Amino acid sequence: MSSTNRSRPVVVPLNRPNDALRLHDVPFELVPCEVPFFLVHTPAGFPSPAQDDMQEPIDLGAWLVEHPAASYIMRVEGRSMAGAGINDGDLLVVNRAKAPRTGAVVVALVHGERTLKRLRYIDGRHWLVPEAEGFADILIDEHVEIWGTVVGVARKMV
Amino acid sequence: MSPPIALIDCNNYYVSCERAFDASLVGVPVIVLSNNDGCAIARSAEAKALGIKMGDPIHHLRDKVRQHGIQVRSSNYALYGDMQRRVIAACESFARDFEIYSIDETFLDLAGFEGRDLVAHANAMRAQVQLWTTIPTCVGIAETKTLAKLANAAAKKNPQFGGVADLRDDDVRRDVMHAFAVGDVWGVGGATARKLTDLGIHTAGALRDMPMKQARAIGTVILERLVAELRGVPSNAVEAVEPRRKGMAVTRSFGTPICDFERMMGALSQYAMRAGEKLRSHGLVAARLTTFFHTNKHKPDRPQYGASRMVTLHPMTNDSLELIAAARRGAEKAWRDGFAYTKAGIMLDDLLPEDERPRTLFEEDTAKRDRLMGALDAINGKFGTWTAVTASQGFKREWKMRSEMRSPAWTTDIGQVPTVRA
Q1: Contact criterion met (CB < 8 Å) for A80 and B422
Q2: What is the pTM of this model?
Q3: Which end of chain B is more exposed for a tag (fewer CB within 10 A), N or C?
Protein backbone atom coordinates (compact mmCIF):
# COMPACT_ATOMS: atom_id res chain seq x y z
CA MET A 1 0.00 0.00 0.00
CA SER A 2 1.37 3.40 -0.88
CA SER A 3 0.83 4.95 2.51
CA THR A 4 3.33 2.56 4.13
CA ASN A 5 5.94 3.55 1.57
CA ARG A 6 5.37 7.21 2.00
CA SER A 7 5.63 7.24 5.76
CA ARG A 8 9.01 5.51 5.93
CA PRO A 9 11.64 7.66 7.76
CA VAL A 10 13.34 10.00 5.37
CA VAL A 11 16.96 8.97 4.79
CA VAL A 12 19.30 11.65 3.49
CA PRO A 13 22.53 10.49 1.87
CA LEU A 14 25.53 12.62 2.75
CA ASN A 15 28.31 13.58 0.43
CA ARG A 16 30.62 11.02 1.96
CA PRO A 17 30.17 7.65 0.20
CA ASN A 18 28.44 4.79 2.04
CA ASP A 19 27.18 7.17 4.64
CA ALA A 20 23.48 7.46 5.09
CA LEU A 21 21.97 8.66 8.31
CA ARG A 22 18.53 9.03 9.74
CA LEU A 23 17.09 12.50 9.58
CA HIS A 24 17.48 13.34 13.23
CA ASP A 25 21.19 12.52 13.03
CA VAL A 26 21.83 14.99 10.27
CA PRO A 27 23.02 18.52 11.06
CA PHE A 28 20.28 20.86 10.04
CA GLU A 29 22.31 22.71 7.41
CA LEU A 30 22.88 19.45 5.48
CA VAL A 31 19.17 18.86 4.94
CA PRO A 32 18.07 20.13 1.52
CA CYS A 33 15.15 22.41 2.12
CA GLU A 34 12.84 20.68 -0.39
CA VAL A 35 12.76 17.41 1.53
CA PRO A 36 9.27 17.17 2.94
CA PHE A 37 9.29 16.18 6.58
CA PHE A 38 5.87 14.61 6.55
CA LEU A 39 4.83 12.82 3.39
CA VAL A 40 1.64 11.47 4.90
CA HIS A 41 -1.30 13.50 3.70
CA THR A 42 -2.85 14.95 6.85
CA PRO A 43 -6.03 16.94 6.57
CA ALA A 44 -7.22 18.95 9.52
CA GLY A 45 -8.02 16.76 12.50
CA PHE A 46 -6.20 13.77 13.91
CA PRO A 47 -4.40 11.32 11.64
CA SER A 48 -5.89 7.86 11.70
CA PRO A 49 -4.04 5.76 14.26
CA ALA A 50 -4.60 2.76 11.94
CA GLN A 51 -2.83 4.40 9.01
CA ASP A 52 0.34 2.34 9.28
CA ASP A 53 -1.43 -0.92 9.99
CA MET A 54 -3.96 -1.05 7.15
CA GLN A 55 -4.40 -4.55 5.80
CA GLU A 56 -6.66 -6.29 3.33
CA PRO A 57 -9.91 -7.65 4.75
CA ILE A 58 -10.05 -11.41 5.23
CA ASP A 59 -10.82 -13.17 1.99
CA LEU A 60 -12.63 -16.35 2.95
CA GLY A 61 -12.77 -17.51 -0.66
CA ALA A 62 -8.99 -17.34 -1.06
CA TRP A 63 -8.54 -19.22 2.22
CA LEU A 64 -10.95 -21.94 1.18
CA VAL A 65 -9.75 -22.26 -2.41
CA GLU A 66 -5.97 -22.48 -2.16
CA HIS A 67 -5.48 -23.69 -5.70
CA PRO A 68 -8.10 -21.93 -7.83
CA ALA A 69 -6.82 -23.10 -11.24
CA ALA A 70 -7.39 -26.75 -10.33
CA SER A 71 -10.38 -26.33 -8.00
CA TYR A 72 -14.08 -26.49 -8.80
CA ILE A 73 -17.10 -25.58 -6.69
CA MET A 74 -19.90 -28.15 -6.48
CA ARG A 75 -23.17 -28.38 -4.59
CA VAL A 76 -24.10 -31.41 -2.50
CA GLU A 77 -27.39 -33.16 -3.17
CA GLY A 78 -28.26 -35.85 -0.64
CA ARG A 79 -27.44 -36.98 2.85
CA SER A 80 -25.05 -39.93 2.52
CA MET A 81 -22.09 -37.95 3.90
CA ALA A 82 -23.84 -36.46 6.95
CA GLY A 83 -21.45 -38.42 9.19
CA ALA A 84 -18.56 -36.51 7.67
CA GLY A 85 -20.28 -33.20 8.45
CA ILE A 86 -21.32 -32.64 4.84
CA ASN A 87 -25.00 -31.82 4.44
CA ASP A 88 -27.49 -31.54 1.64
CA GLY A 89 -27.02 -28.15 -0.06
CA ASP A 90 -23.43 -27.55 1.11
CA LEU A 91 -20.90 -26.14 -1.32
CA LEU A 92 -17.72 -28.15 -1.83
CA VAL A 93 -14.29 -27.14 -3.05
CA VAL A 94 -13.01 -30.00 -5.19
CA ASN A 95 -9.31 -29.93 -6.05
CA ARG A 96 -8.24 -32.05 -9.01
CA ALA A 97 -4.53 -31.43 -8.46
CA LYS A 98 -4.53 -33.02 -5.01
CA ALA A 99 -3.87 -36.75 -5.28
CA PRO A 100 -6.78 -38.71 -3.77
CA ARG A 101 -5.55 -40.62 -0.71
CA THR A 102 -7.40 -43.27 1.22
CA GLY A 103 -9.34 -41.59 3.98
CA ALA A 104 -10.08 -38.51 1.88
CA VAL A 105 -13.57 -37.43 0.83
CA VAL A 106 -13.68 -37.53 -2.95
CA VAL A 107 -15.93 -36.75 -5.89
CA ALA A 108 -16.07 -39.82 -8.13
CA LEU A 109 -17.80 -40.56 -11.39
CA VAL A 110 -19.77 -43.79 -10.98
CA HIS A 111 -21.12 -44.81 -14.39
CA GLY A 112 -20.72 -41.15 -15.31
CA GLU A 113 -22.67 -39.77 -12.34
CA ARG A 114 -20.93 -37.50 -9.81
CA THR A 115 -20.93 -39.13 -6.38
CA LEU A 116 -19.57 -37.93 -3.03
CA LYS A 117 -18.02 -40.59 -0.78
CA ARG A 118 -14.99 -41.39 1.38
CA LEU A 119 -12.18 -43.31 -0.28
CA ARG A 120 -11.32 -46.49 1.70
CA TYR A 121 -8.97 -49.41 1.22
CA ILE A 122 -10.49 -52.57 2.68
CA ASP A 123 -9.23 -56.15 2.21
CA GLY A 124 -7.00 -55.29 -0.74
CA ARG A 125 -9.62 -53.31 -2.65
CA HIS A 126 -10.61 -49.66 -2.95
CA TRP A 127 -14.14 -48.61 -2.00
CA LEU A 128 -16.30 -45.52 -1.99
CA VAL A 129 -17.86 -45.51 1.46
CA PRO A 130 -20.88 -43.41 2.55
CA GLU A 131 -21.15 -42.01 6.07
CA ALA A 132 -24.84 -42.34 6.87
CA GLU A 133 -27.29 -45.19 7.48
CA GLY A 134 -29.03 -46.74 4.52
CA PHE A 135 -26.38 -46.22 1.78
CA ALA A 136 -24.24 -48.96 0.25
CA ASP A 137 -20.48 -49.10 -0.30
CA ILE A 138 -19.37 -48.92 -3.92
CA LEU A 139 -16.47 -51.05 -5.14
CA ILE A 140 -14.05 -49.10 -7.33
CA ASP A 141 -13.87 -50.87 -10.68
CA GLU A 142 -13.52 -49.82 -14.30
CA HIS A 143 -16.83 -47.94 -14.14
CA VAL A 144 -15.57 -45.63 -11.41
CA GLU A 145 -13.24 -42.68 -11.86
CA ILE A 146 -12.00 -40.47 -9.02
CA TRP A 147 -12.62 -36.91 -10.25
CA GLY A 148 -11.15 -34.83 -7.45
CA THR A 149 -10.44 -34.51 -3.73
CA VAL A 150 -12.74 -32.46 -1.50
CA VAL A 151 -10.58 -29.85 0.23
CA GLY A 152 -13.24 -27.56 1.66
CA VAL A 153 -16.90 -27.22 2.64
CA ALA A 154 -18.89 -23.98 2.79
CA ARG A 155 -22.32 -23.41 4.26
CA LYS A 156 -24.40 -20.37 5.15
CA MET A 157 -26.49 -20.70 8.29
CA VAL A 158 -30.01 -19.21 8.39
CA MET B 1 19.70 -21.61 -33.24
CA SER B 2 16.73 -19.72 -31.89
CA PRO B 3 15.15 -20.90 -28.65
CA PRO B 4 12.32 -23.40 -29.02
CA ILE B 5 8.70 -22.32 -29.16
CA ALA B 6 5.80 -24.61 -28.33
CA LEU B 7 2.18 -24.30 -29.33
CA ILE B 8 -0.26 -26.05 -27.02
CA ASP B 9 -3.67 -26.53 -28.56
CA CYS B 10 -6.71 -28.00 -26.81
CA ASN B 11 -8.36 -30.85 -28.70
CA ASN B 12 -11.95 -30.04 -29.78
CA TYR B 13 -11.79 -27.39 -27.08
CA TYR B 14 -15.46 -26.43 -26.72
CA VAL B 15 -16.55 -30.06 -26.74
CA SER B 16 -13.85 -30.93 -24.18
CA CYS B 17 -15.10 -28.11 -21.91
CA GLU B 18 -18.68 -29.41 -22.19
CA ARG B 19 -17.51 -32.94 -21.35
CA ALA B 20 -15.62 -31.79 -18.26
CA PHE B 21 -18.91 -31.40 -16.38
CA ASP B 22 -21.24 -33.65 -18.31
CA ALA B 23 -20.03 -37.23 -18.47
CA SER B 24 -23.00 -38.20 -20.64
CA LEU B 25 -21.22 -36.44 -23.51
CA VAL B 26 -18.13 -38.64 -23.27
CA GLY B 27 -17.80 -41.21 -26.04
CA VAL B 28 -20.77 -39.94 -28.06
CA PRO B 29 -20.84 -37.52 -31.01
CA VAL B 30 -21.10 -33.90 -29.77
CA ILE B 31 -21.25 -30.63 -31.67
CA VAL B 32 -21.19 -27.08 -30.32
CA LEU B 33 -23.01 -24.39 -32.28
CA SER B 34 -21.90 -20.86 -33.10
CA ASN B 35 -23.49 -17.75 -31.64
CA ASN B 36 -27.20 -17.83 -32.17
CA ASP B 37 -27.16 -21.60 -32.74
CA GLY B 38 -26.30 -21.15 -36.42
CA CYS B 39 -23.72 -23.75 -37.37
CA ALA B 40 -21.31 -26.30 -35.97
CA ILE B 41 -18.10 -24.70 -34.70
CA ALA B 42 -16.73 -27.57 -32.62
CA ARG B 43 -17.06 -31.28 -33.18
CA SER B 44 -16.02 -34.25 -31.12
CA ALA B 45 -13.95 -36.93 -32.86
CA GLU B 46 -17.14 -39.04 -33.13
CA ALA B 47 -18.98 -36.17 -34.86
CA LYS B 48 -16.08 -35.62 -37.27
CA ALA B 49 -16.22 -39.34 -38.09
CA LEU B 50 -19.88 -38.86 -39.06
CA GLY B 51 -18.75 -36.39 -41.71
CA ILE B 52 -19.87 -33.22 -39.92
CA LYS B 53 -17.78 -30.32 -41.14
CA MET B 54 -16.73 -27.11 -39.48
CA GLY B 55 -19.39 -24.49 -40.23
CA ASP B 56 -22.15 -26.89 -41.28
CA PRO B 57 -25.47 -25.06 -40.65
CA ILE B 58 -27.52 -26.85 -38.00
CA HIS B 59 -30.67 -26.97 -40.16
CA HIS B 60 -28.75 -29.11 -42.66
CA LEU B 61 -27.77 -31.49 -39.87
CA ARG B 62 -31.19 -32.22 -38.37
CA ASP B 63 -31.44 -35.68 -39.92
CA LYS B 64 -27.95 -36.71 -38.87
CA VAL B 65 -28.56 -35.40 -35.37
CA ARG B 66 -31.69 -37.51 -35.03
CA GLN B 67 -30.25 -40.58 -36.74
CA HIS B 68 -27.00 -40.78 -34.76
CA GLY B 69 -28.13 -39.25 -31.47
CA ILE B 70 -25.67 -36.40 -31.82
CA GLN B 71 -25.58 -34.22 -28.71
CA VAL B 72 -25.93 -30.55 -29.62
CA ARG B 73 -24.88 -27.64 -27.38
CA SER B 74 -25.06 -23.87 -27.78
CA SER B 75 -21.73 -22.17 -27.20
CA ASN B 76 -21.06 -21.32 -23.56
CA TYR B 77 -18.31 -18.72 -23.56
CA ALA B 78 -18.47 -18.16 -19.80
CA LEU B 79 -17.35 -21.76 -19.39
CA TYR B 80 -14.78 -21.77 -22.21
CA GLY B 81 -13.19 -18.55 -20.96
CA ASP B 82 -12.86 -19.83 -17.41
CA MET B 83 -11.41 -23.14 -18.53
CA GLN B 84 -8.90 -21.27 -20.70
CA ARG B 85 -7.60 -19.43 -17.61
CA ARG B 86 -7.10 -22.80 -15.94
CA VAL B 87 -5.35 -24.33 -18.95
CA ILE B 88 -2.91 -21.42 -19.09
CA ALA B 89 -2.28 -21.57 -15.33
CA ALA B 90 -1.44 -25.26 -15.69
CA CYS B 91 1.10 -24.46 -18.45
CA GLU B 92 2.75 -21.50 -16.72
CA SER B 93 5.42 -23.37 -14.81
CA PHE B 94 6.54 -25.15 -17.98
CA ALA B 95 7.59 -22.09 -19.95
CA ARG B 96 9.51 -18.86 -19.57
CA ASP B 97 6.75 -16.82 -21.12
CA PHE B 98 3.54 -17.36 -23.02
CA GLU B 99 1.36 -15.63 -25.57
CA ILE B 100 -2.32 -16.43 -25.80
CA TYR B 101 -3.13 -16.81 -29.47
CA SER B 102 -6.76 -17.86 -29.31
CA ILE B 103 -9.18 -19.32 -26.79
CA ASP B 104 -7.66 -22.78 -27.27
CA GLU B 105 -4.12 -22.08 -28.48
CA THR B 106 -1.19 -20.66 -26.54
CA PHE B 107 2.39 -20.14 -27.66
CA LEU B 108 5.03 -20.92 -25.05
CA ASP B 109 8.57 -19.58 -25.01
CA LEU B 110 10.77 -22.51 -23.99
CA ALA B 111 14.03 -20.51 -23.81
CA GLY B 112 16.05 -21.95 -20.94
CA PHE B 113 14.48 -25.37 -21.26
CA GLU B 114 16.55 -26.44 -24.31
CA GLY B 115 18.73 -28.74 -22.23
CA ARG B 116 15.79 -30.94 -21.37
CA ASP B 117 14.03 -33.66 -23.29
CA LEU B 118 11.35 -31.31 -24.60
CA VAL B 119 9.01 -34.09 -25.69
CA ALA B 120 8.96 -35.38 -22.11
CA HIS B 121 8.62 -31.79 -20.89
CA ALA B 122 5.63 -31.20 -23.17
CA ASN B 123 4.06 -34.48 -22.09
CA ALA B 124 4.41 -33.47 -18.43
CA MET B 125 2.66 -30.20 -19.28
CA ARG B 126 -0.14 -32.00 -21.11
CA ALA B 127 -0.58 -34.29 -18.11
CA GLN B 128 -0.85 -31.28 -15.78
CA VAL B 129 -3.43 -29.58 -18.02
CA GLN B 130 -5.47 -32.76 -18.18
CA LEU B 131 -5.21 -33.28 -14.41
CA TRP B 132 -6.30 -29.74 -13.55
CA THR B 133 -8.96 -29.31 -16.24
CA THR B 134 -9.71 -32.75 -17.82
CA ILE B 135 -8.93 -31.17 -21.21
CA PRO B 136 -6.78 -33.13 -23.70
CA THR B 137 -4.18 -31.19 -25.67
CA CYS B 138 -1.53 -31.53 -28.38
CA VAL B 139 1.82 -29.77 -28.47
CA GLY B 140 4.02 -28.74 -31.38
CA ILE B 141 7.63 -27.69 -30.79
CA ALA B 142 9.87 -25.84 -33.25
CA GLU B 143 12.08 -22.78 -33.67
CA THR B 144 9.39 -20.45 -35.01
CA LYS B 145 5.70 -19.90 -34.49
CA THR B 146 4.80 -20.94 -38.02
CA LEU B 147 6.70 -24.20 -37.59
CA ALA B 148 5.25 -24.74 -34.11
CA LYS B 149 1.77 -24.34 -35.57
CA LEU B 150 2.62 -26.86 -38.26
CA ALA B 151 4.12 -29.24 -35.69
CA ASN B 152 0.95 -28.95 -33.65
CA ALA B 153 -1.24 -29.83 -36.62
CA ALA B 154 0.98 -32.85 -37.28
CA ALA B 155 0.76 -33.95 -33.63
CA LYS B 156 -3.00 -33.68 -33.81
CA LYS B 157 -3.37 -35.53 -37.10
CA ASN B 158 -0.93 -38.40 -36.65
CA PRO B 159 -1.50 -40.61 -33.63
CA GLN B 160 2.06 -41.94 -33.91
CA PHE B 161 3.34 -38.72 -32.34
CA GLY B 162 1.45 -39.45 -29.13
CA GLY B 163 0.34 -35.83 -28.86
CA VAL B 164 3.73 -34.09 -29.17
CA ALA B 165 5.65 -33.36 -32.37
CA ASP B 166 9.13 -31.83 -32.12
CA LEU B 167 10.11 -30.42 -35.51
CA ARG B 168 13.66 -29.75 -34.35
CA ASP B 169 14.21 -33.47 -34.89
CA ASP B 170 15.51 -33.85 -38.47
CA ASP B 171 13.54 -37.01 -39.28
CA VAL B 172 10.29 -35.62 -37.91
CA ARG B 173 10.77 -32.38 -39.79
CA ARG B 174 11.48 -34.08 -43.11
CA ASP B 175 8.42 -36.34 -42.81
CA VAL B 176 6.05 -33.61 -41.67
CA MET B 177 7.14 -30.89 -44.09
CA HIS B 178 6.75 -33.12 -47.11
CA ALA B 179 3.35 -34.42 -46.12
CA PHE B 180 1.88 -31.04 -45.15
CA ALA B 181 -0.30 -29.37 -47.80
CA VAL B 182 0.81 -25.85 -48.62
CA GLY B 183 -2.73 -24.51 -48.26
CA ASP B 184 -2.80 -25.68 -44.63
CA VAL B 185 0.28 -23.69 -43.66
CA TRP B 186 -0.62 -20.98 -41.17
CA GLY B 187 -0.90 -17.66 -43.00
CA VAL B 188 -1.25 -19.06 -46.53
CA GLY B 189 -4.61 -17.88 -47.80
CA GLY B 190 -6.69 -19.49 -50.52
CA ALA B 191 -5.50 -17.17 -53.28
CA THR B 192 -1.82 -17.57 -52.39
CA ALA B 193 -2.23 -21.34 -52.13
CA ARG B 194 -3.61 -21.47 -55.69
CA LYS B 195 -0.69 -19.41 -57.02
CA LEU B 196 1.75 -21.70 -55.24
CA THR B 197 0.22 -24.95 -56.47
CA ASP B 198 0.22 -23.52 -60.01
CA LEU B 199 3.98 -23.22 -59.60
CA GLY B 200 4.20 -26.84 -58.48
CA ILE B 201 4.61 -25.94 -54.81
CA HIS B 202 2.30 -28.36 -53.05
CA THR B 203 3.85 -28.93 -49.63
CA ALA B 204 5.20 -26.94 -46.72
CA GLY B 205 8.63 -28.37 -47.55
CA ALA B 206 8.47 -27.07 -51.12
CA LEU B 207 7.31 -23.67 -49.87
CA ARG B 208 10.27 -23.57 -47.48
CA ASP B 209 12.68 -24.37 -50.31
CA MET B 210 11.38 -21.82 -52.81
CA PRO B 211 13.63 -18.84 -53.54
CA MET B 212 12.97 -15.89 -51.24
CA LYS B 213 12.77 -13.48 -54.15
CA GLN B 214 10.08 -15.55 -55.82
CA ALA B 215 8.14 -15.72 -52.55
CA ARG B 216 8.25 -11.96 -52.31
CA ALA B 217 7.06 -11.59 -55.90
CA ILE B 218 4.06 -13.85 -55.33
CA GLY B 219 2.95 -12.93 -51.87
CA THR B 220 4.80 -9.76 -50.93
CA VAL B 221 6.94 -9.44 -47.85
CA ILE B 222 4.36 -11.46 -45.88
CA LEU B 223 5.04 -14.64 -47.82
CA GLU B 224 8.77 -13.96 -47.75
CA ARG B 225 8.67 -13.79 -43.96
CA LEU B 226 6.60 -16.93 -43.86
CA VAL B 227 9.21 -18.78 -45.92
CA ALA B 228 11.88 -17.52 -43.51
CA GLU B 229 9.81 -18.82 -40.59
CA LEU B 230 9.56 -22.22 -42.26
CA ARG B 231 13.36 -22.20 -42.50
CA GLY B 232 13.55 -21.73 -38.75
CA VAL B 233 14.30 -18.02 -38.81
CA PRO B 234 11.80 -16.22 -36.58
CA SER B 235 10.38 -13.09 -38.12
CA ASN B 236 7.96 -10.74 -36.48
CA ALA B 237 5.46 -11.56 -39.19
CA VAL B 238 3.20 -13.16 -36.63
CA GLU B 239 2.82 -10.11 -34.42
CA ALA B 240 2.92 -7.68 -37.33
CA VAL B 241 0.11 -9.17 -39.35
CA GLU B 242 -2.45 -9.87 -36.68
CA PRO B 243 -3.29 -6.48 -35.13
CA ARG B 244 -2.93 -4.62 -38.43
CA ARG B 245 -5.98 -6.19 -39.87
CA LYS B 246 -7.34 -5.04 -43.14
CA GLY B 247 -10.89 -5.05 -41.95
CA MET B 248 -13.19 -6.34 -39.29
CA ALA B 249 -16.85 -7.16 -39.00
CA VAL B 250 -19.39 -7.48 -36.23
CA THR B 251 -22.42 -9.42 -37.39
CA ARG B 252 -25.08 -11.45 -35.65
CA SER B 253 -28.25 -13.29 -36.42
CA PHE B 254 -31.29 -12.28 -34.40
CA GLY B 255 -33.13 -14.66 -32.11
CA THR B 256 -36.39 -13.07 -33.20
CA PRO B 257 -36.58 -11.28 -36.57
CA ILE B 258 -36.53 -7.49 -36.52
CA CYS B 259 -39.22 -5.62 -38.45
CA ASP B 260 -38.96 -2.01 -37.34
CA PHE B 261 -36.24 0.49 -38.00
CA GLU B 262 -35.53 1.70 -34.47
CA ARG B 263 -35.01 -1.81 -33.20
CA MET B 264 -32.69 -2.47 -36.12
CA MET B 265 -30.79 0.69 -35.22
CA GLY B 266 -30.57 -0.55 -31.64
CA ALA B 267 -28.84 -3.70 -32.82
CA LEU B 268 -26.60 -1.89 -35.30
CA SER B 269 -25.57 0.66 -32.67
CA GLN B 270 -24.53 -2.16 -30.42
CA TYR B 271 -22.38 -3.68 -33.17
CA ALA B 272 -20.86 -0.28 -33.95
CA MET B 273 -20.01 0.15 -30.27
CA ARG B 274 -18.38 -3.25 -30.23
CA ALA B 275 -16.46 -2.52 -33.44
CA GLY B 276 -15.25 0.79 -32.00
CA GLU B 277 -14.09 -1.03 -28.89
CA LYS B 278 -12.18 -3.54 -31.03
CA LEU B 279 -10.57 -0.76 -33.07
CA ARG B 280 -9.49 1.13 -29.98
CA SER B 281 -8.04 -1.95 -28.34
CA HIS B 282 -5.83 -2.45 -31.39
CA GLY B 283 -5.05 1.27 -31.75
CA LEU B 284 -6.63 1.39 -35.22
CA VAL B 285 -8.90 3.76 -37.11
CA ALA B 286 -11.20 2.88 -40.00
CA ALA B 287 -11.85 4.69 -43.28
CA ARG B 288 -15.11 3.02 -44.32
CA LEU B 289 -18.11 1.51 -42.64
CA THR B 290 -20.60 -0.80 -44.30
CA THR B 291 -24.01 -1.47 -42.83
CA PHE B 292 -25.96 -4.50 -43.98
CA PHE B 293 -29.02 -6.54 -43.07
CA HIS B 294 -31.04 -9.23 -44.75
CA THR B 295 -33.99 -11.56 -44.33
CA ASN B 296 -33.71 -15.31 -43.77
CA LYS B 297 -32.28 -16.74 -46.99
CA HIS B 298 -33.11 -20.26 -45.92
CA LYS B 299 -36.83 -19.51 -46.02
CA PRO B 300 -37.35 -18.73 -49.72
CA ASP B 301 -41.14 -18.77 -49.33
CA ARG B 302 -40.98 -15.59 -47.23
CA PRO B 303 -40.49 -12.10 -48.70
CA GLN B 304 -36.77 -11.62 -49.27
CA TYR B 305 -34.75 -8.45 -49.10
CA GLY B 306 -31.19 -7.64 -48.27
CA ALA B 307 -29.15 -4.48 -48.64
CA SER B 308 -25.89 -2.92 -47.66
CA ARG B 309 -24.58 0.64 -47.79
CA MET B 310 -21.04 1.88 -47.47
CA VAL B 311 -20.28 5.17 -45.72
CA THR B 312 -16.91 6.90 -45.85
CA LEU B 313 -15.55 7.96 -42.50
CA HIS B 314 -13.86 11.29 -42.87
CA PRO B 315 -11.68 11.85 -40.95
CA MET B 316 -10.80 8.22 -40.22
CA THR B 317 -12.05 7.30 -36.79
CA ASN B 318 -12.48 4.74 -34.05
CA ASP B 319 -15.03 6.80 -32.17
CA SER B 320 -18.05 4.64 -31.41
CA LEU B 321 -20.42 7.58 -31.62
CA GLU B 322 -19.13 8.46 -35.10
CA LEU B 323 -19.45 4.82 -36.11
CA ILE B 324 -23.04 4.70 -34.84
CA ALA B 325 -23.87 7.88 -36.78
CA ALA B 326 -22.37 6.35 -39.93
CA ALA B 327 -24.25 3.09 -39.36
CA ARG B 328 -27.48 5.09 -39.08
CA ARG B 329 -26.83 6.97 -42.32
CA GLY B 330 -26.23 3.66 -44.09
CA ALA B 331 -29.21 1.94 -42.51
CA GLU B 332 -31.60 4.80 -43.34
CA LYS B 333 -30.68 4.53 -47.01
CA ALA B 334 -30.91 0.76 -47.14
CA TRP B 335 -34.05 0.31 -45.03
CA ARG B 336 -37.31 -1.03 -46.41
CA ASP B 337 -40.40 -1.68 -44.34
CA GLY B 338 -42.32 -4.92 -44.49
CA PHE B 339 -39.55 -7.48 -44.14
CA ALA B 340 -38.51 -9.70 -41.25
CA TYR B 341 -34.76 -9.22 -40.96
CA THR B 342 -32.85 -12.04 -39.32
CA LYS B 343 -29.28 -10.90 -39.71
CA ALA B 344 -27.44 -7.60 -39.60
CA GLY B 345 -23.95 -6.36 -39.19
CA ILE B 346 -21.41 -3.69 -39.77
CA MET B 347 -18.02 -4.02 -41.45
CA LEU B 348 -15.05 -1.72 -41.19
CA ASP B 349 -12.45 -1.45 -43.94
CA ASP B 350 -9.13 0.22 -44.63
CA LEU B 351 -7.84 0.10 -41.11
CA LEU B 352 -4.74 2.05 -40.17
CA PRO B 353 -2.81 2.51 -36.95
CA GLU B 354 -4.14 5.61 -35.25
CA ASP B 355 -0.83 7.52 -35.42
CA GLU B 356 -0.56 6.95 -39.17
CA ARG B 357 -4.01 8.36 -39.82
CA PRO B 358 -4.05 11.10 -42.47
CA ARG B 359 -4.98 14.43 -40.91
CA THR B 360 -7.67 16.57 -42.42
CA LEU B 361 -7.51 20.30 -42.83
CA PHE B 362 -10.36 21.36 -40.59
CA GLU B 363 -10.20 18.90 -37.80
CA GLU B 364 -11.96 19.23 -34.51
CA ASP B 365 -10.04 18.59 -31.37
CA THR B 366 -10.59 14.90 -30.67
CA ALA B 367 -9.00 14.81 -27.21
CA LYS B 368 -12.35 15.15 -25.48
CA ARG B 369 -13.90 12.36 -27.52
CA ASP B 370 -10.85 10.17 -26.86
CA ARG B 371 -11.38 10.64 -23.15
CA LEU B 372 -15.07 9.80 -23.48
CA MET B 373 -14.26 6.62 -25.41
CA GLY B 374 -11.60 5.72 -22.85
CA ALA B 375 -14.15 6.12 -20.06
CA LEU B 376 -16.72 4.06 -21.99
CA ASP B 377 -14.23 1.21 -22.47
CA ALA B 378 -13.17 1.38 -18.83
CA ILE B 379 -16.75 1.21 -17.57
CA ASN B 380 -17.71 -1.65 -19.85
CA GLY B 381 -14.47 -3.47 -19.07
CA LYS B 382 -14.96 -3.16 -15.33
CA PHE B 383 -18.68 -3.62 -14.90
CA GLY B 384 -19.43 -5.89 -17.81
CA THR B 385 -20.15 -5.38 -21.46
CA TRP B 386 -22.96 -2.93 -22.20
CA THR B 387 -23.13 -1.36 -18.75
CA ALA B 388 -22.63 2.02 -20.38
CA VAL B 389 -24.49 2.23 -23.68
CA THR B 390 -25.57 4.96 -26.01
CA ALA B 391 -29.25 5.73 -25.99
CA SER B 392 -29.69 4.40 -29.55
CA GLN B 393 -28.57 0.99 -28.38
CA GLY B 394 -31.63 0.89 -26.18
CA PHE B 395 -31.83 -0.86 -22.87
CA LYS B 396 -33.97 -3.88 -23.52
CA ARG B 397 -31.95 -5.59 -26.22
CA GLU B 398 -34.66 -7.82 -27.63
CA TRP B 399 -32.25 -8.89 -30.37
CA LYS B 400 -30.28 -10.94 -27.85
CA MET B 401 -28.78 -14.09 -29.28
CA ARG B 402 -30.51 -17.40 -29.38
CA SER B 403 -28.83 -20.14 -27.39
CA GLU B 404 -31.36 -22.75 -26.55
CA MET B 405 -29.03 -25.61 -25.73
CA ARG B 406 -26.48 -23.84 -23.58
CA SER B 407 -24.98 -25.73 -20.65
CA PRO B 408 -24.86 -23.96 -17.27
CA ALA B 409 -22.06 -21.56 -16.32
CA TRP B 410 -20.61 -24.43 -14.29
CA THR B 411 -17.53 -22.59 -13.03
CA THR B 412 -18.46 -18.92 -12.94
CA ASP B 413 -21.91 -18.67 -11.32
CA ILE B 414 -22.45 -19.99 -7.81
CA GLY B 415 -26.09 -20.65 -8.67
CA GLN B 416 -25.14 -22.94 -11.53
CA VAL B 417 -22.31 -25.04 -10.13
CA PRO B 418 -22.42 -28.80 -10.81
CA THR B 419 -24.18 -30.95 -8.25
CA VAL B 420 -22.73 -34.09 -6.69
CA ARG B 421 -24.91 -36.88 -5.26
CA ALA B 422 -24.16 -37.76 -1.67
Answers
A1: yes
A2: 0.67
A3: N
